[in-house]
Batch of 2 targets.
Target 1
Amino acid sequence: MKVIKVKNYDEVSAEAFKVMKEVVANKPEAVLGLATGSSPIGLYENMIKDHKENGTSYAKCQSFNLDEYVGIDRNHSQSYWTFMHENLFHGIDLPEDKIHVPYGNTKADCEGYEKAMENVSVDIQVLGIGGNGHIGFNEPGTPFTEETHIVDLTEKTRSDNARFFENDINKVPTQAITMGIATIMKAKKILLVASGANKADAVAAMVNGPVDPACPASVLQNHPDVVVIVDEEAAAKL
Ligand code: GLP
C-alpha cells in the first residue's frame, strides 16, 4: 500500500488526478471503477477540466460504480446515479451506454451487476472511506468474500450521510446495493482518497491496523497495487 500525504483536499484531488490520468493515457479503453461521496468530487473536477482543456477522452472507457441507495429512484437528487451525472458524467465524453451504476434490491439485481462485470477487469477503482472504515457500502463485519449484495446501513453511516438529506437521518435510506469486497479487490489498481479529521481513525485502522472485517478498508493491505492519498488531517493518526 503506497500512502501519499499531502496538505489539503485540493492537493489530494490533484494527486489522485495524476494517477487516474496515467491509467487512461496508457489505456484509452480503460474500465473505471467509480465512487461517490464528497471525497472524489475534486478528482472528478480535475478530470472534467482536463477533458475540456487537453482533450483527454473517455469515449472508449466504461464505468462501474460501487454502490447505490435502495428505495430511492434513480432520478432522486441524492441517488448515486444523479450524483455521478452531476459531478462527472455531464462533463466528460463517457458514452451513456457504457455507464453502470448498480440498482435494485433483489438477489437477481446483485447477480445481474456481477454478470455485467464478468468479462471486464476494472483498471482503476476509485474509493473513499467511511468514518467507520467502510468501502463502497461494505460496513464493518462484512465478510471479505462477499460480491455485490444488499446491505443494511449502520446508524453511523446514515448519520454521516444525513447532511445530503436535509440533515434528517429519517430521510436517509436504510439499505444500499454495493459491490462486495471481493468485487472491489478484483480491480487491477485501487485509488483511495481521504481528507478531513473525521477520517483519521479509519485511515489509521486501514493502513496500520490488523486486516480484519471490523475495518473493511484494512483488506486493501492484501491488494498488490493500492495508492492511498490523504491530507494532513486524515493522516493525523498514522
Ligand atoms: C458513502 C459511500 C462511500 C464513501 C463514503 C464516504 O457511504 N457509499 O463510497 O466512501 O460515503 O463519503 P465522503 O467521501 O462524503 O466522506
Target 2
Amino acid sequence: MKWLKSELERIKEQNLYRRLFHFESPPGKVLELEGRKFINFASNDYLGLASAASLECLRRWGAGSGASRLVSGSFTVHRELEKELARLKKTEDALLFSTGYMANVGVISALAGKGDLILSDSLNHASIIDGCRLSRADILVYNHCDLEHLESLLKENRGRYRRCFLVTDSVFSMDGDLAPLDGLFRLKRLYGAVLIIDDAHATGVVGWSSLELFGLTPDDTTVLVGTLGKALGTFGAFVAGSSLLREYLINRCRSFIYTTALPPFVACQTLENLKLVPERMALLRRRLSFFRNLTGINSPSAVFPYLCSSPERALALSEFLRERGFWVPAIRPPTVKQSRLRISVTAEHTEEELRLLWSSIREFELTL
Ligand code: PMP
C-alpha cells in the first residue's frame, strides 16, 4: 500500500498534514504536554463539566453496555435521560445515540431517501453532509444562512419531490454564528418541509435549545439533534422530537440499531451533570459577554473566530500563543474558507485569562 505514503506526501505539500497531540493531564481548562502547561481555548467542554465524575454511577453501572439497545443494552437510566432531555428540549420524546456524528448520519439517512430533496446550509457539519450523502436523496446546498437563496430553491423544486427536508446547524461550529431559525421555521411551514436542527454547540450554551432564543417551540416536523460530548460534559448524543419519530428511528435508523449502546454510566453521569447546567450556563454567559466586549468579536455563542489573512499567519499566531501558554488551534482550508483561530471560551476561564489571551493576540498583531 505504497500509495498511502504518496497520498500523505501530497497532504504535507499542501500544508494540510494533521497530527495528534497526547496530553498528559485529563480533559480540563489546563492541558499538560511534555511537562508544559497550557490554558485550553480549544475545548467544547463549554461548562467545564467534562471532569465531573460520580463514582456512584460507575459502581452501579460499570463501564460498558454489553450490547446494542435493541438486544440487551437498554437500561432504565438511558430512558430516564431520554425523558429528561425531551423535557429540556420541549419535545415529546428523545432517543440516545452513541455519538453526534452517528445521530446526524443516522437520522438524516433514516428519514430522507430516493425521491426526496434535502436543502442543506453550505457550512453544515461534516456529519450532516455525510448523512445527506448516505440518504440517496437529492441534495441542494444553499448559501450560508441565506433565506432568500433557500426560498428560491424551494420554489424552483415545489411539487417535484416526495418530501422535503431543511437541515442546519443552529450554532455553526467554526464561525459560532446562529442560523436564522425563525425564517427556517417559516419556510418549513410554508413549503411543508421537515426541519432538522443540529444543536451540538447550542445545547447548554445559548440555553437548553437554540429555539428558545427565537421564542419557538418544536412541533411534529422539527427534529433536534444534540450532543452530550460538548457542554453537557460526557459523551454520546440524542435526537429529540415526536414520540412517533422516536419509534420510527428505533425501527429504521441503522446507526442506532447496529451499534453498542451508550454505556449506562455515561447516561447516569449526564443526568448528574444536567443538575449543574443552569448555574454554569449563567457563569458562561457572563464570561461570553466579557469576551465579546473585550474583543469586539460579536459571537452569539461560545465560539469566537479570529480571522487571519493566510493559513501561514493563522499557524504563526497559534504558535505564538502556544509559546505564551495558550492552546488555540489554527483552522485552515479546506475546513474553512478563511483561515482563523477558533477560540472557545468556557465557564472555567477567568476574566484575567481572557484578558491575557487577548493582549497576547494584540501583541502578535502589533509586533509581527
Ligand atoms: N455536529 C456538530 C455541529 C459538531 O460540531 C459535532 C462535533 N464536532 C458533531 C455534530 C458530532 O458530535 P460528536 O462529537 O458527539 O460525534
